[in-house]
Structure formats: structure tokens, C-alpha cells
Amino acid sequence: MKVALQAHVFFAMMLCGVALGMVYDMLALLRRLLHAGCAMTGFLDLFFGAACAAGIIAAGLALETEVFRWYVFAGVLLGMAVYGCTAGRIARLIIRSFAEMSKKVKK
After folding, report:
1. Are 88 and 28 in contact (CB under 8 A)?
2. Cβ of 30: how many Cβ atoms within 10 Å?
3. What is the crossing angle of helices 38-63 and 70-85, to 10°?
4. What is the mean pLDDT of residues 29-56?
5. What are phi and psi of 35, to 5 degrees?
6. How many CB atoms neighbour CB 40 within 10 A?
């Protein structure tokens, strides 16, 4: 496989990682809305794992490449890290403030 194609797949998988980071934050919001306990949190974590596997495989199929290569997983992890350090921080701040507002409304 040529290096240019590997770089293309790597950056596409970074976008996949960004999308998976967004899914994780949406599941965090769902946990807060449902007041999830240990069992529900475990179920949502398993769902996130399945979503990660499905997202990586779907992206690999769309790109017509093998998904079990090191640069694929590295791209996904880097994409999740970039999202977590940029827009993810803003999303978590909004989720946290939403939770604080909902606690004040309940009182």
C-alpha cells in the first residue's frame, strides 16, 4: 500500500475518531439525563464500544481498506484526543452547566 493512501486513510480515521468523541459526549449527556446508575453506565459503555467497532469498520469499508492496521487505530485515537482537547472541552462544559441548572430547577 502506498504511503499517500495510508496518509489518506489515517486522516479519514481521525475524522472517524472525532465523530466517536462526539458520540461519547452524547452518551455522557444521556447518562446525566437518565440519572444512570452502575448498570446503565456499564450498558452505555458497552454500547460505545460497539459503536467504535462499527464506526471503524464502516469507515474502513467506505475507504475500501483494511481496518486492522496500526495507523487506523492511531488515527482514531488521535482524532478522539484532538476532539477531547478542543470542541470536547466545550461540550463537556455545556453538559456540566446543564446538569447544574437541572439541579437548581429541582430544588
Report:
1. no
2. 13
3. 120
4. 91
5. 50, 55
6. 13
